[in-house]
Amino acid sequence: MCYNSNVGFQIFGVHIAYYGIIISFGLLIGIILCDFLCRKRGYDTNIPYTLVLFVVPLAVLGARFYYIIFSDQLSLADFFNFTNGGFQGLAIYGAEIGGLIGIIIYCLVKKCSAFAITDFVVIALILGQSIGRWGNFFNQEAFGIVTNWHCFPFTVYIDSLQEYHLATFFYESILNFVGFFVLLLIYHKQKKIGTTTASYLIWYGITRAIIEPLRTDSLLFPGTTADFVFNRVSFVLSIALIVVGVVLLILNKKGKLSQNDKHLLKSVNQ
Q1: C-alpha dist (Å) from residue 168 to 1, 7, 8, 153, 165
Q2: Average pLDDT rounded to a whole number, residues 151-175
Q3: Burial class of residue 73 in the structure, from the number of CB atoms within 10 Å of its CB (0-12 exposed, 13-18 middle, 19+ buried)
Q4: Helices (H), 140-192
Q5: Rounded mean pLDDT of 88-97?
Q6: Summary mean pLDDT of the chain
Q7: Rounded to an integer, what distance in angstroms lies between the CA atom of residue 16 and that of residue 101?
Q8: Whole-model pTM above 0.85?
Q9: CA 137 to CA 163: how far, in whole Å?
Q10: Residues 4-34, buried b or exposed e (16+ Cβ, 10 A)?
Q11: Residues 52, 65 contacting (CB under 8 angstroms)
């Protein structure tokens, strides 16, 4: 199956890429889901809509900065040059780092628990990641090694290479979708603040650690090659996420994480 890497449509002479539509849809679904999860916990339902003002801008900047830092094709001079790379010049781990900074700033302003916020945000995040990975399908990116197996969606035909490759974007999308239901169950069954966040770090860390060695477009540490898996930035970061997630679970079990979410409750905010 062959697809144009920049396929989309025109509105008043402006090109609208399907990738952008998919990412926007994932963001919208995430906000709606955060609203739902806040209601379930009795939190102020204004939180998701205020939070997005802190998180989204920093997530975009973080995604761009992360990509440029580890890209061998772009420099800091290209930071705002979205014609050179565009949405292809963004990285999800950078978005997560930038988004986390936004959450921390929000929590400092509102004087609330960061883990109480991240517990519901990560559920929306992993669902958004599952949806967003299909943007890679239209952009023909984030694919894996070449294969003779022709079976979409497990493999995908790349126009520019005229070869079939492992559809690693699809594998990650499915694993993220399964992770969404796992985190949702944990969020409803486990009331300890921080458990869902730790579970996300472990789940997504394992997911990326599995997928990253199969990809052909991994960002690398400067001066290294993809031959050694630990030269891949996202693989190393994935391992770090797993370790941090396990540590958080241990600390939470010992009661070391704050369980105070009173500043988020509707009765307090109103």
Answers
A1: 16, 20, 22, 9, 8
A2: 95
A3: exposed
A4: 168-189
A5: 87
A6: 88
A7: 30
A8: yes
A9: 15
A10: eeeeeeeeeeeeebbbeebbeebbeebbebb
A11: no
